[in-house]
Each structure stands twice: as structure tokens, then as C-alpha cells.
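Complex 258.
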Amino acid sequence: MFFDTHVHFDDFVEDGSFEAVLERAQAAKVHHLLAVGGSVEGNELSLKLAGEFPGTIFGSVGYNRDLAGESLDFSLLREQAARSETVAIGENGLDYFYEPEKAAEQKEIFSQCLEIAAEVRKPVIIHTRDADDDTLGMLTDFSKVWKGDPANLGVLHCFTRDEKLAKALLDLGLMISFSGIVTFRNADPLREVAKMVPADRILIETDSPYLAPVPHRGKRCEPAFVVDTAALLADLRGVTVEALAGQTAHNAHALFGA
Ligand SMILES: [Zn+2]
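Predicted structure with zinc ion bound:
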């Protein structure tokens, strides 16, 4: 049984392929999926799907960094964060690759999301790109006000950085999630990081509809493909795919309390 911890369902619902995509996921033994939010529409869809597929699809709500500069309704987010379908706050974080000029606004949004996560005691799903220092700094502050289980602070999703950042995040109490990027031909340094993450701190995800793993590159990514990422990670770490699937699903259930 696989747990895909990061799926954007928006496109699948929009073009009518959602049911087929979910069927293919279940046929591939991907029985648990986290429908990630991060925008007004994404949050609504995540809660809707989590309500329709309890025990299969889990919800998360957040405001991601691409909303920097927009006026955002944080009281709505606070309300959605407290709902039982919501198992995590995200995705949110910082991205200085795309919009470095909006760093201050991004940090403002991120800090409000972290505050809400601390209030509702739900783990955070973090996006970060070219913003290691600020991300670490803000997560360090968050860890100090976090009153939940110190091991369940959250997850750095779609990890692509180095061992130094991975270690710092693990020390803070975050889990590390690997997407299809770890299967890419030029990802040797990332594969080295994937070898050192402790068994009880690793998660897997597709980040569908983006980043299809080898051998599906060029296709739209979907949750069934998480099996290929799991197979590569299992091989790297010298365990069976079944063991890796079981361990990462166990970790996700522990983190999300679902
Ligand atoms: Zn995402």
C-alpha cells in the first residue's frame, strides 16, 4: 500500500479524468492520497475531495508563495484549517527562484500560515526554492511555538537540495519527501541525500500533475506513478518496494494523524 503525500487534483477534476486517475492509483495500490491545497480554489477542492473519499483522500489548506501581493482571507483559512478533513497546513513557503522581488510578501504569508498551523496543531507542508536560509529561520521559529508532537512538525515536500539542508530540517523535526525528481538521470546528488534520510523520516509523493518519474517522463504525472519513485528509493536504500511502501505510508499516517 502506497501513500502519495502530495497531489494537485485540480487539473484532473477540470478535464474529467479524476475518476480514471483515482482508479489507476488504486489499481497500483496507491490507497492513500493527500490532496494538497495552497490557493483559494485548491483549498476548497482539497476539502471537497477529502469529504467525498474519507480514509482515502486527505485534505490540506494553505496559501502558497505565488499568492504574494494578493489580498488573502486568513480568517477563512483559519476556519478551513480547523476542519476535520484538514490533516495539514500547506502547501506554503518561499520561492526566490520565481519571485525574489516579492520575498517580503512571501514571508508575510508564510508566517501567517505557520501561525495558523501552530494554533490548530497540524503539521505544515513546505515548499522552498532558492530560499534555504529564510525557510530554515522561519521553521526554527515555528518549532519553538509548536505544541504538537515535536516529531510531527511537518514535511519539506519535493526535496531537491543538499545534505546540509536535509540534516537541518531533520534536526528540527521535519520529514523529507521525495518526488519523481529523484529518478531523473542527473539526480545523483539527490540520490545520495535519499540514502541518508532515516527510515522513519522519509515520505514519497508525485506532486501530480508535475514531475512524472522515469519511465513516464513527458507524460502528465499522476498518483499511480508514485510506485516508480518508491521502487527507485527502495533499490537505493537496499530494501524491498513493499517495505519502503509500508514504511513511508506508516510515516505519513503518523505525521498527518490520519
Ligand atoms: Zn505542490
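The chain is about 45% helix and 15% strand.
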